[in-house]
Amino acid sequence: MGESLVDRHVGFVRALREAGVPVSVAEGLDAVRALRVIDLAERESLRAAYAATLVKRPVHRPGFDVLFDLWFPPVMSGATAPAGDAAGSPARPGGTAKAPAAEPRERLAELLTGGSDAEMREFARAMVERYGRQQAGPGRQNWFSYSVMRALSPETLMAGILREALAGRERGGLAERAVRDQVTAGIRRFEEAVAADVRRRIAEDSGVERIARSAVRPPLDQVEFLRATREDLSRLRREVYPLARRLAARLVIRRRRGRRGRLDFRRTVRASLQSGGVPLTPSFRPPRPHRPELVVLCDVSDSVSSFAHFTLLLTYALSEQFAKVRAFGFVDTVDEITRFFRPGTDVVDAMTRMANEADMVRFGRTNYGHALERFAERHGDAVGPKTSLLILGDARSNYQPPALDTLKALAGRVRNAYWLNPEPRAQWDTGDSVASAYAAVVPMTECRNVSQLTAFIADLA
Question: How confident is the model at residue 291, as a pLDDT?
């Protein structure tokens, strides 16, 4: 490979850090110590040693596996099976080999219902060699997964597999469902094996570092809200409820620490007997437990649509944690959306109804100033001394007046106020952003992902 194991180790650890997997210097040294007590020729032992010493959270494991396969590939291109044997199976111990299938699709059908992971990976390598190469110019070639999947079309094998597996048995029962699940899982394994081999070949041609930067999706807690896909948002839904519970608990703690209870006259007098009747140390009753009230102002414009989707999920979860939650959405005017997020309501249905029924748009261009003024005018009674105000948005107001006096008046009436901005801090005050002006009134925190939201909640204590 032209590199020593030390070079590979250093590059691998650096790639993990760049992909968002936290690896300390001490953990890197632990991995080196682990390598001294395993058989380096056993690739899976090497993977297990690295995983045990470097991976601390399950969410980081998929990215770790992708990078491990790039930095410690199972084979090099010259060691793959010849293209003419692509439809066959690997040699068995003793020099005998299973008779090759007549066509690659037939062999794939066999593997989907009973092949081992090793057989699937070797078959995928052979198929990438046969179908995945495309010439990009003189002496240059590119590798693609889609051409392999298009040539073999594994989804179209389902009918034939079911017909053969269920011969003489009734269709539509548990047996058919079991076969369908097995084939679906097999197709997913094949797709992953093809993608892994394509990445390996691109890394050989272009360099491991180059492909590593684009091959690994960031861990879920570091997916930026403004770039989150529909799939990311679906996965983030599971992260919302623990954060909502933690946020409610933190606000309760701040309330308890910020206010003493009423004077306990009896305990104060009793304590004063030790100082000749002089009440030197007053005693207070502990404040009663209180579930705080929350008002959420959420920018739901298209420019922050993914962030708005996440914050609405958060609002839905918060409604179960607070004694009273009122939520308001705005683009260039504001409307209360609390009615769409009652506990027990399906969150997808709630968002669909909100998009169709809520009055949050006049002209379609975000206007924070007008939205704040309309909020104060229509819903000023929503905030008070028991209220926590949470504003969610990027503070980009299309060069319209920001209505800072209105925001100051609102912030002065609430117990505490916070602003979460999904944009990187370096982009604040660029273009039509008035982030710093708003931040001078309400403390503003960069909140681009779940990790930063978790840190914000932790800092409330």
Answer: 56
Distance between CA atoms of 240 and 458, rounded to whole angstroms?
15
Write out the residue range of the structural domain in which residue 427 sits: 226-262+288-459
CA–CA dist 79, 77 (Å, integer): 5
Q: What is the CA 283 to chain-centroid distance, rounded?
A: 48
Residues 6+ apart with CB under 8 A from 239: 220, 221, 450
Q: Pairing state of beta strands 444-446 and 387-392?
A: unpaired
The three-class DSSP label of residue 342 is coil
CATH number for the domain harbouring residue 422: 3.40.50.410
142, 121, 125, 124: which is closest to 133 by C-alpha? 142
The partner residues of 324 in beta bridges, in order of sequence, read 293
Among residues 191, 102, 198, 103, which one has the least CA distance to residue 150? 191
- The answer to whether the CB of 394 falls within 8 A of the CB of 365 is no
Element (H, E) at 137: strand 133-137
Contact assessment for residue 133 and residue 80, using Cβ atoms and an 8 Å cutoff: no
Dihedral sign for Cα 124, 126, 127, 131, please.
positive
Q: Is the separation of the CB atoms in 235 and 220 below 8 Å?
A: yes
The encoded tokens of residue 169 equal 């048995």
Mean pLDDT in consecutive groups of 10 residues from the start of the chain, 461 residues: 77 88 91 91 91 89 89 70 42 39 78 85 89 74 85 87 77 80 89 87 80 75 81 78 78 55 75 76 68 83 81 76 82 89 72 82 87 93 89 92 94 92 93 94 92 84 53
Distances, alpha carbon 413 to alpha carbons 386, 410, 416, 444, in Å = 9, 5, 9, 18
388 lies in a domain? yes
* Strands annotated E in 346-410: 387-392
Q: Is residue 441 in a domain? A: yes
Q: What share of the chain is helix, strand, coil (3-state, %, to 5)?
A: 55, 10, 30
Q: Could you tell me if residue 106 is inside a domain?
A: no
How many structural domains is the chain composed of?
Answer: 1
Nearest alpha carbon to residue 4 among 66, 71, 55: 71
Amino acid symbol at 255 = R
User: Integer distance in angstroms from the first to the last C-alpha of the chain?
Assistant: 52
pTM, rounded to two decimals: 0.63
Q: Which helix (H) or strand (E) holds 208?
A: helix 208-215
| CB-based contact 49:12 (threshold 8 Å) | no
Q: What gap in Å lies between CA 13 and CA 9, rounded to an integer?
A: 6
> Does residue 331 lie within any of the structural domains?
yes
